[in-house]
Amino acid sequence: IILVGFDYPRKAVVFGDVIYPTGDFVKDMKPIYDFFLTIQGPKKEWLVNYAQTGEIPLPKEGR
User: Fold this and answer.
1) What are the residues facing 5 on neighbouring strands?
2) All structural domains of the chain with their residue ranges
3) Who contacts 35 (Cβ-Cβ below 8 Å, separation ≥6)?
4) Cβ neighbour number for residue 54 with a 10 Å cutoff
5) Cβ-proximal residues to 26 (8 Å cutoff; 6+ apart), any chain
6) What is the pTM of this model?
7) 13, 39, 57 from 60: Cα distances, Å
8) DSSP one-letter string for the chain
C-alpha cells in the first residue's frame, strides 16, 4: 500500500512510505495515522482521537 494524501493549503499531493500489511490491525494502522497527521486535508475527524490519545480505534463489527 502506498500512502498518498492531498495537502490542501499547499496544493500538493504528498506520497508516503510503502506499507506492507502484517495482519496486526493496530501495528499496520500506526504508520498510516502518523502519515495523515502530517497532512492538512479538508476533514480530519477520524484522526482526532488518535492525535489526542495515541490510541488507534478498532474497526466496528460488520464492516
Assistant:
1) 14
2) 22-53
3) 3, 5, 16, 17
4) 9
5) 56, 58
6) 0.72
7) 30, 25, 9
8) -EEEEEETTTTEEEEEEE----S-HHHHHHHHHHHHHTS--S--GGGHHHHHH-PPPPPPTT-
Question: What would the grid cell of residue 27 be?
Answer: 501495528
Residues in the chain: 63
Report the alpha-carbon angle 33-16-56, nearest 5: 10
> Which three cell numbers mark 34?
502518523
pLDDT in tens, 10-50: 999 999 999 999 999 889 989 988 898 888 877 667 677 77
CA distance 21 to 40: 25
